[in-house]
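so ive been stuck on this for like two days lol. basically i have the seq below and the ligand is 2-acetamido-2-deoxy-beta-D-glucopyranose, smiles is in there too. i just want the complex predicted, nothing fancy, no docking runs or whatever. if the output looks off dont worry ill sanity check it later, just need somthing to start from for the group meeting slides
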Amino acid sequence: MKRQYFPTTTTFTLLWLAAILAPIVTLPPISGDENDQYTKCGVLFNCGSLTGIDYPFSSRDRPEECGHPGLKLACENNTATILINNLKYRVLDLDQKAQILKIARSDLSQNPCTEELKNTTLDWGLFEYASSYMNLTFLYGCPSLGVMVPYQFDCPVKGIAERSGYVELGVGAPLSGFCHVSIVVPVSYPSLVNFTDLVQLEELVAKGFEVRYKVDSGACRECRNSRGRCGWDVTGKRFACFCSDQSAAESKTCAATVVGAAGSYSSRAPTATVAPSASARIVRWKLTKLRKP
Ligand SMILES: *[C@@H]1O[C@H](CO)[C@@H](O)[C@H](O)[C@H]1NC(C)=O
Ligand SMILES: *[C@@H]1O[C@H](CO)[C@@H](O)[C@H](O)[C@H]1NC(C)=O
Ligand SMILES: *[C@@H]1O[C@H](CO)[C@@H](O)[C@H](O)[C@H]1NC(C)=O
Ligand SMILES: *[C@@H]1O[C@H](CO)[C@@H](O)[C@H](O)[C@H]1NC(C)=O
C-alpha cells in the first residue's frame, strides 16, 4: 500500500514544483536576454548640446551591442568625446541624418603642447572627410630660429632639449627637416581664411573638422520600420536588429511578431505555451525514472 502511495505524492510534488519553477526557469533563456538588448538600446545618449543620440553610437549607458565598435561616445565635463585610433576627440556636433560628426582633437584644444605627439589618423574604413579641410603641420623640438616666424610656440618635448615649435600649412613643409617631431592636424578649410596669429590658429584647431561615418543606414531603417531597435552583433561583427520579444539578428526586421500596440503582449504567448509542455515533459521523464526498479 505504501509503495503505491509514494509515487503519487512524488508526482504531485513534481507537478507542483514544475508549475512553480517552469515560468522562472524557462522564461529568461527564451526571451530575457534579447529583451534586455532591446531595452538597453532604447536608452539615448545625451551630453551637453548633443541629445537623443542612438545607433550607430554606443556609450556607457548604451552597451557595445547598441552601436558600431568604432563609434563609442563618452561624456566628460558636459562635452561628448570619441576615441579614434587611440586619440581622443571632442565631438562638437553630430548630425545623425547626414551621418556627419564635427570633431576636434581634445589634446590640442587649449594650446599646441601635447603629450600625444601623434598624427591625426582616422580609421578610413569608417570615416571620410565630409567637407573641405586643410592640413596643418605642428613641428616640435625645433631649434630656435632667431628670426620671426609666424605661429611660433614653446613646448617641452620629452628627452629633447629644443623647445621651439612652429606651425606650417600643408604637409612636408620646409621647416620639418629641422625638428624632431611633426604631427599633421586637419582643420576646416572655410574658417582658415581669417587666421593671422597662433591664438586664432588654436581657435581653428578647436573648431574642428567634419567627417562622415560610413555606416550603412539602410538596414537600420528597415529594422526601425518594423519597430525593432538597431544594434550590433558583437560576435558576428555585423548589424543586428533587436525586437521587443526576440532577437532578429539573422534578419533586419522584426517582421510578423509585432502588429499593433497589443503586439508586445501577444508576442509573449508562444513562451507561455512552451513552458507547461516543457515542464510536462520533465515530469514525464522523472516519472519514467521513478518507475524503473
Ligand atoms: C574636465 O574638468 C576637469 C576640472 O575642470 C579637468 O581637470 C579635466 O581635464 C576636464 N576634462 C576634459 C576632458 O576636458
Ligand atoms: C606624421 O606624418 C608626417 C607625414 O605625413 C610624418 O613625416 C611624421 O613623421 C608623422 N609624425 C608622427 C609622430 O608619426
Ligand atoms: C593631408 O595630409 C594627408 C597625409 O598626412 C594627405 O593624405 C592628404 O591628402 C592631405 N590633404 C590635403 C587636403 O592636403
Ligand atoms: C573673415 O573676415 C571677414 C571680415 O573680417 C568676414 O566678413 C568673414 O565672414 C570672415 N570669414 C570667416 C570664414 O570667418
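The pocket of 2-acetamido-2-deoxy-beta-D-glucopyranose (ligand 4) is lined by residues 190-191, 193-194 (CB under 6 Å). The first helix runs from residue 2 to 40.
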